[in-house]
Write a structure and sequence with these properties.
Number of strands: 5
Bound molecules: adenosine monophosphate
CATH architecture: 2-Layer Sandwich
Strand content: 15-25%
Radius of gyration: 14 Å
Distance between the termini: 30 Å
Number of helices: 2
CATH topology: HIT family, subunit A
Strand order of the largest sheet: 1-2-3-5-4
């Protein structure tokens, strides 16, 4: 986790536009937004990917999903719709090896994704 960019965001060594924070999770705007609303929600603990999720991580994963309704309401997309995406591995295009959930909305999102 030494040079993990998201760990550095958690430590406030790199600035981010935070929309939600508590003891175990952080949500902030994606620096390269793919939609009018594009938030990343991460566990503060360094978990590299979905492949590394263990039973002891259940609480933080559940917590992430439990705050999504409030975050999307604050961002104005709760009723219009949004998508939650977690890329894992190279075929999915994971570029940051710290578990994160994209929340995308604010426009019609194509399906299936490319
Ligand atoms: P993924 O490609 O699924 O691993 O998603 C990583 C996301 O992190 C991309 O959408 C990037 O735009 C985003 N990202 C990378 N660096 C930063 C940063 N410093 N602040 C906010 N978002 C970032």
């Amino acid at each position: 986790m030494g040079d993990c960019i998201f760990c550095r965001i958690v430590e406030k060594q790199i600035p981010s536009k935070i929309v939600y924070e508590d003891d175990s999770i952080l949500a902030f705007h994606d620096i390269d937004a793919k939609a009018p609303v594009h938030i990343l929600i991460i566990p503060k603990e360094h978990i590299p990917s979905i492949n590394d999720v263990k039973p002891q991580n259940c609480d933080v994963i559940a917590r992430i999903f439990s705050v999504i309704p409030q975050i999307v309401e604050n961002l104005g997309v709760k009723n219009s719709g949004y998508r939650v995406v977690a890329n894992s591995g190279s075929d999915a295009g994971q570029s940051v090896n710290h578990l994160h959930f994209h929340v995308l909305g604010g426009r019609t999102l194509s399906w299936p994704p490319g």
